[in-house]
Amino acid sequence: MSYGWLLAAHLLGAALLGTAVAALWLVDERIRRASDRATLMRAGRRAEVLGKRFLMPGVVLLAGSGAWLVGRYYGWSFTRIPWLAGMAGLFVFQSVWAHAVTRPRALRMRRLLEQPCATDRLSPALVQVRDAPRARFGQHLEPLLFALVVVLGVWRPMDWSTVALGCAAAVLAAAAIALYTTAPRPTSSVSRASVEAEGGT
Length: 201
Description:
mainly alpha; 7 helices; disordered C terminus
């Protein structure tokens, strides 16, 4: 296969995967804010469709064309090229994270949603699985790591410190966002005063 076709397949895979990562982040935000089982079910079905139509084809295209390009033009010397080794390492890490954390969480939520329930309210077990710290962290980490992979491929830094700094920044940013979005919001004094005033009238 020519370089042009391999590159086109690689770019198409990146576009599909990027679309899936962004769309799944939005779906996960809807899951995080859901207050009823019906919303979780709809979001889960939407995530399954995105996985089949965008995520899996993107992963297959990106992995296949990427391995072919690396094997044909770099060989094992890619391990000494910081930007290329960084891209490959991050891609593998994201795949492992998806199989070790993201997919098992989705399966547990599906099993809990399939159980008969008298009300549409979320059970404590369902809330616990939905709000698991690793899942919340991973929700924000995955798009940041994908963005870092794109930056490495475009910028192509030749020093390991830049790659390490990018990884550290992505991890810290994901942790900060996860903590911010899950922290309880205090009710402002203005809001409390207005509520008390309305209650007194």
